[in-house]
């Protein structure tokens, strides 16, 4: 008991490095203005894409792909099998888990499924074609986000080569450097490694000038920039670190900035003990014990009730932030996707699509 107390005492000192919610991080209630669309009709819409006809597309936890248009939600396709238990832990791999997506220059929806790989969906027929289902012979466990270069090359984040997506909590706890960025040419069907050694590579987006990509290293609460062209091609740098939460998806917005959803928060006062991951971070033995002995869902009891959406600039400055203190409307944010003056908000656990107008996030005050 004394040993545990001493350990706990040493751990809590890490909390002094947590961000403080002031300045651009000052708490507001912008996210509480959100409207819940299609509540109870969809589970876990996590990422979005837009088509040239104004349609918005998303994927759900049961492997289905959806179209949102004219206030209607319609089924487009499935990435895996059709089964009554789709959406469950047991059948996630078989049913599929669509993650990042984007409509390409041919009008097809390119989807990254955590397990199935890179898929091409014909939006007029719903036909799904597998473009890549492995890398160098190894099947995928946890593909995540994507973007497309002007030449059609698909850039993909792979969060882990050890843990499956459904066991994401263990990857977060272990703080492994098993994430990587892959590139895939849909024409030649060739794939290659862009970068590896990343901490749970999550959200990914091209920069506005398309010279680099931004990658959310979720378990390190930071965003890394990887240069794709010019004299610094191949080089990487930490764009912003010590974020007030664990970054999920990153999306460009109309102001030349980036929306960054936070899957959970870590800031001064967010928990009586401090951030759970900050507490166990320096102690690999403790982390190994946790992943072996504690059921993964129990980790959720450590999550503070506060949702945050960040807006960051090209140079990594946090421009502003949008909050739901108490998580009365949202438990957390996977992605904020802007299409025109509409902002769609998703999270892999919520049973609705969140919706805000752009001006609602730009209003001063609460």
From TrEMBL:
SUPFAM superfamilies: Calcium-dependent phosphotriesterase. Belongs to the strictosidine synthase family. This is Adipocyte plasma membrane-associated protein. InterPro entries: 6-blade_b-propeller_TolB-like, Strictosidine_synth_cons-reg. It comes from Elysia marginata. GO terms for molecular function: hydrolase activity. Keywords: Glycoprotein, Signal. It holds the Pfam family Str_synth. Residues 144-230 form the Strictosidine synthase conserved region domain. The keyword Membrane does not apply. GO terms for cellular component: endomembrane system. Residues 1-17 form the signal peptide. The lineage of its organism: Eukaryota, Metazoa, Spiralia, Lophotrochozoa, Mollusca. The keyword Metal-binding does not apply.
């Amino acid at each position: 008991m004394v040993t545990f107390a001493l350990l706990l005492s040493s751990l809590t000192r890490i909390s002094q490095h947590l961000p403080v919610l002031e300045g651009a991080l000052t708490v507001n209630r912008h996210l509480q203005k959100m409207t819940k669309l299609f509540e109870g009709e969809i589970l876990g819409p996590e990422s979005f894409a837009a088509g040239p006809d104004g349609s918005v597309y998303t994927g759900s936890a049961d492997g289905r792909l959806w179209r949102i248009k004219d206030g209607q939600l319609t089924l487009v396709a499935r990435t895996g099998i059709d089964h009554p238990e789709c959406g469950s832990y047991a059948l996630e791999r078989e049913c599929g888990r669509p993650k990042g997506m984007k409509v390409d220059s041919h009008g097809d929806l390119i989807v990254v499924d955590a397990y199935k790989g890179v898929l091409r969906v014909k939006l007029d027929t719903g036909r799904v074609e597998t473009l890549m289902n492995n890398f160098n012979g190894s099947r995928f466990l946890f593909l995540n986000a994507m973007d497309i270069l002007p030449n059609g090359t698909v850039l993909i984040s792979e969060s882990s080569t050890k843990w499956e997506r459904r066991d994401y909590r263990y990857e977060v706890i272990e703080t492994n450097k098993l994430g990587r960025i892959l590139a895939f040419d849909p024409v030649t069907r060739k794939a290659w490694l862009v970068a590896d050694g990343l901490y749970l590579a999550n959200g990914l987006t091209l920069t506005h000038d398309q010279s680099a990509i931004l990658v959310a290293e979720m378990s390190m609460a930071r965003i890394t920039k990887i240069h794709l062209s010019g004299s610094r091609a191949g080089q990487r740098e930490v764009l912003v670190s010590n974020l007030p939460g664990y970054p999920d998806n990153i999306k460009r917005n109309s102001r030349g900035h980036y929306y960054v959803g936070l899957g959970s928060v870590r800031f001064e006062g967010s928990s009586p003990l401090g951030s759970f991951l900050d507490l166990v971070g320096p102690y690999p033995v403790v982390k190994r014990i946790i992943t072996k002995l504690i059921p993964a869902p129990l980790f959720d009891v450590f999550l503070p009730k506060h949702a945050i959406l960040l807006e960051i600039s090209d140079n990594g400055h946090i421009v502003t932030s949008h909050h739901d203190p108490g998580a009365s409307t949202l438990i957390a944010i996977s992605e904020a996707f802007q299409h025109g003056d509409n902002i769609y908000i998703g999270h892999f656990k919520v049973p609705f699509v969140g919706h805000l107008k752009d001006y609602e996030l730009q209003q001063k005050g609460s």
